[in-house]
Amino acid sequence: MREIKFRGKALLSIEDLNSFGIEHSNGWVYGSLITNKGKPFIVGDLVETDPEYVIHEFWVEVDPKTVGQYTGLKDKNGTEIYEKDLVKDKLGRTYKVRYNEFCAFMLYPIDGNDFMAIYPVIELEVIGNVYESELLEVTE
């Protein structure tokens, strides 16, 4: 079964994430996605459960625009590929990874309208994401 997990950019500062001992990558947190009153949170694994409550390792409110799901695939370097990542194929073409209701995750060229399905056999390399990339500033 494919691992279902998400990532998002924490609304807490990096200093706060560090002081609370929350594992992150430059402010990006990884785990399960829950929402409370329309606000998205990335939460860690369950530490304790009871019929009346659950306790997670951590919970962090994230920017809703930055939430992306793990595709279940890794790039040629072993980096997990998430929705809204930018990837490059072996021919040097750059794509955005996007969710598509007909075929789960698809690759959309940043300089065109075509698209193709993402498969484990395609050799890809994660080079960034749509929120922290100078590539998009040049093409959009």
From TrEMBL:
<dbReference type="InterPro" id="IPR019096">
    <property type="entry name" value="YopX_protein"/>
</dbReference>
<feature type="domain" description="YopX protein">
    <location>
        <begin position="57"/>
        <end position="137"/>
    </location>
</feature>
<dbReference type="InterPro" id="IPR023385">
    <property type="entry name" value="YopX-like_C"/>
</dbReference>
<protein>
    <recommendedName>
        <fullName>YopX protein domain-containing protein</fullName>
    </recommendedName>
</protein>
<dbReference type="Pfam" id="PF09643">
    <property type="entry name" value="YopX"/>
</dbReference>
